[in-house]
């Protein structure tokens, strides 16, 4: 049987070619030039078919020699593949197990194996089918063949039988713009169409193709699918493929032998369908053309490297790609005038006008001018320390063709791009990423400072039970599985540090493989993965159920805000891929998703939980001092400082910028320090360190140590003070830098500019006055006074003389009365106004009385010379130590005459009395009494 082999070639400038070297049956090396299958100037796939007569024995040994455009060559290792006989009558494949020997060829091959979620939505038998897209429509420009293992057709002939479901684009006139074919080849080079599928057959149908004309030969049967540049449909699905020795004799075989030939009108319909509304560009270059029915490059190429470019027709939107090996292209057009434009990355587009005439060929060559380039150079440093950041990655978001660059050991970088404005993205581990708009118009210097982003391990997120009951692998590479990850409650942002995957052992699949890729996607509003954040990242699987595969992702600085998806991508077809383990007996988390044919969907529940986990790190949280509170005052020098910080970090406690101690933060995220405060203000701050680098710091908490009591001076109260007032205003001076309150008998006093005042009520008798000054730290100064209050004036009794007294100059009168002991007693003699005319020199004065016995007061008044009076009044006054005062007039009045005048007889007592000061009765002998308080 013929053998088809492919090789992928990469070059940093321009891929050249590939040559297959193989050993023939004699062990001699032979060579075959490979043809370009697909790709571009930097990466291309080459394919070669080894003739069947050269593929003999039990094994086949080969190696590749590849070259670039300059002729540099590289030779691969030798490879050995086992050879088996082809299939024949009795073969049946339902795609439920690994279909051996099925291969894919073509420049845009989209055939894939799996469970259909579009088209028929189910297989005929089992679960799996082959389809051009398991979950949607095929793409534009589909061009690929699904090839069965080599078929040995018996001499009696054979029939290919299979189940078919198809939907291809077809015009109203019956023209098949897109279609499928069953093709056959004897050498894997030249293919013949045996049956064609077009239009729609939207139910599973039996299809049959007669292979009898190849009786006695070994052939290759393929399912070829093609689509044009526009309008997509659901495509082709096949199942239950068999090689039989007898026909099904189908009445309605969906496979037709040939397409219906189309006339010119149908061709014009196609041209109208493809035409786009493009504005015709002016100043197009005129190209002289040899008039034929096609446009192509000439053999006389303009000097320069050939380019992989797109040549398009502005009038109808049709386009073709050039051959990157030599830059040639060819397209067939209807007769007419057209404007062609050639464009490729990094070059200015160029237009030419061309006229195509029937049966003529127009030649249009393009020499494209490369766009100018500019280089931006600079350094990336830490915003905090100013130190250079090593291995920071810089990339241009809008241009994936520009390879990302990394900073060197000095933080230097240099990135070159075609002229234009781009978003420059800077990523560095343990730093916050930064994006900025940069215009590449000339060489320039740009220095970038990144803010540190310190993290601490946040644990592992997973939803499986840790034990695998099964494992799965896709038939085709490029598909994948994912698990939706949610951050724990209270966490809104994280850095994804690792992808964690569980793979089956080496016993399945066989031979299996270890290569796979990791991607991380964001979560969309519909619950499906929305945007690829990073990847694919190449990884190697550990095929051991006792050991998880951990892929380090820290260098990619993947920041997620909420839900995200950890994704496994299969990079090799079955059976050359590892088997991803599944947990089928644990609670189904409903978080496993499958990526098939470029589309995401929820994985079937019976597949369980795919054993994919993620490890994350959280940004270092700002430490917080929770006790003592900010603004605390204390008179205790020893205090316990408590707070919280991110686990696994180190916290240093500062007081007035002096370090007092450090603590390693455990899983509970708390710290505690017993410290000695300084007198006065203490500014406490907790600083978090990660691996010795300062990460963040708490707010400053101020604690004031005050061990000095307030200064207190009461100014208007003395101990033992007596008063006759019912209220007392306590006043004084107070001083303290941290004064809190001044209270008088527990009542707050008003304090202003160091002076305090408080009016209080007094009780009769003894009153204790306590003045307390308290500062914020609890220090107090207390002054206590005893104040006596008496609100009742003394009472005067037994006041004499009770009768009028007739006196001469030099004679005395005795005045006495009873009252409270200890009083200050005095009297005055008040002369009548009528007598004062002749006594101009007399001034009544207050004379004391003597307390002769407790409560009994006696005083004497001697009549001075030149004093005459008719009814002078004696008024006595007593005053206690509280300030209470009583006045009273004696009943007896004084009649003073010159010696010899009148007699010494006493008058009659008056009977009328009035109260008041200096009151007068109606009679000469009237007694008047009065009391008063001073």
Automatic annotation (TrEMBL):
Keywords: Carboxypeptidase, Hydrolase, Protease. Residues 253-301, 893-934 are annotated as: Disordered. InterPro entries: CarboxyPept-like_regulatory (IPR008969), ConA-like_dom_sf (IPR013320), Ig-like_fold (IPR013783). It comes from the Bacteria. GO terms for molecular function: carboxypeptidase activity. The keyword ATP-binding does not apply. Gene3D superfamilies: Carboxypeptidase-like, regulatory domain, Galactose-binding domain-like, Immunoglobulins. Pfam families: CarboxypepD_reg, Glucodextran_B. Residues 260-280, 910-934 have a biased composition (Basic and acidic residues). This is Carboxypeptidase-like regulatory domain-containing protein. It comes from Ornithinibacillus hominis.
